[in-house]
Design brief:
Keywords: Signal. InterPro entries: Lcl_C. It contains four helices and eight strands. It is α+β, with helices and mostly antiparallel strands. The protein has a three-stranded antiparallel beta sheet with strand order 1-2-8, covered by helices on one side. The chain has a three-stranded antiparallel beta sheet with strand order 4-5-6. Strand 1 and strand 2 form a beta hairpin. The longest helix is centred in the N-terminal third of the chain and has 19 residues.
Length: about 200
């Protein structure tokens, strides 16, 4: 009887230690959650959107990848992406790849972002129109947002990866938050983002 009590006590102590240190019984590690304004899982980016209780989301690079970049080399004379881009959240990577995969592609804002390797990662991309607007809403906007001013964004125009039509693409001014479809040969800032 005394031996059984010792075994049970030992098991209870071991279980308590596992729970106290955050280890689960399945051998995995506890899930890390993120909030808007946190440093993201890349170790360098700033979280600007979260889903699934902070388990997944989007993070922006800590600084601009370019301060003066056309949307695509050749401007409106470059082959259009032919409606293969979207404005929706979650489409920036596909948009960026569609831009780069054009037969006549020689350079673009999307390529600048795909070349970025912040945190040693190579999955960065040019945000879609709606993803870019989330950056404005959650990190830049002067409203009641506690993360106002996080990320060192300039009060000028930033490109999105969303094409407006064969001649134009969507950009957003970070002075007042307005978005507009402008000529692809305009010069705009570029900030890479990544999903986690």
């Amino acid at each position: 009887m005394k031996k059984e009590k010792s075994i049970i006590l030992g098991l209870l102590i071991a279980a308590s230690l596992l729970l106290a240190t955050g280890c689960d019984m399945g051998g995995g590690t506890p899930a890390v959650t993120y909030a808007i304004g946190d440093t993201g899982p890349s170790g360098v980016g700033i979280v600007f959107y979260v889903t699934d209780g902070g388990l997944h989301g989007l993070e922006a690079a800590p600084s601009d990848q370019s301060t003066s970049q056309v949307w695509i080399e050749g401007g409106s004379t470059q082959t259009t992406v032919n409606g293969n881009t979207s404005t929706a959240i979650g489409t920036g990577l596909a948009n960026s790849n569609a831009i780069i995969d054009q037969a006549e592609h020689t350079g673009s804002a999307a390529q600048v972002c795909r070349n970025y390797t912040g945190g040693g990662l190579n999955d960065w991309f040019l945000p879609s129109k709606d993803e870019l607007d989330l950056i404005w809403d959650n990190l830049v906007n002067d409203g009641t947002n506690s993360n106002n001013g996080v990320g060192g964004f300039d009060e000028s125009n930033y490109w999105s990866s969303s094409e407006g039509n064969s001649s134009n693409a969507w950009s957003q001014t970070f002075l007042i938050g307005l978005q507009g479809s402008v000529s692809k040969d305009n010069l705009r800032r570029v900030r890479a983002v990544r999903a986690f």
